[in-house]
Design goal:
The protein has about 160 residues and is of the alpha+beta class. About 40% of the residues lie in helices and about 20% in strands. The chain is built from five helices and four strands, in the order αβββαααβα. The chain has a four-stranded mixed β-sheet, covered by helices on one side. A hairpin with a 2-residue loop joins strand 2 and strand 3. The relative contact order is 0.19.
Length: about 160
Amino acid sequence: MTTKSLYQEVILDHNRKPRNYGKLDKASHHAVGHNPLCGDHLDIDLNVEGKHIEGIAFHGESCAICKASASMMTTVVKGKSLGDAEMLIKEFRDMATGALDLAHPHHLGRLTVFAGVRDLPTRVKCAILPWHTLHAALNSVSTTSTEAEDDPMHASIGDA
């Protein structure tokens, strides 16, 4: 199976059957993310206990790449420490924008299926939006956009 066909299979599977799709009752953290270029709009709910993400869910309207990215993100960060989640956010963003050399050690595991998105410039922000929104939620920022000039992650995402 080629990397491209695996990527397509994963996207289709997570789009059809997204994991952790819905809302959390009494979320301790919440953020809304928007990608005006594609129209993606996601809500991320978190239950953070101590320094760990004990629960996570997402909902909203988005393209297949965004929904699949959000679905995989929720399965990977659930149970992780806040520090580990922030590290994964940075590594995923860097991978999607081509700034991460996958030949060097990283923590992305099966998330590397999204590495090919770097070759699709119009879709990079679709894949990054859930991670961007998770970062906002973890930092008590209620809304974020892939196009917000004053957003702390905007400079890191750049013009991807």
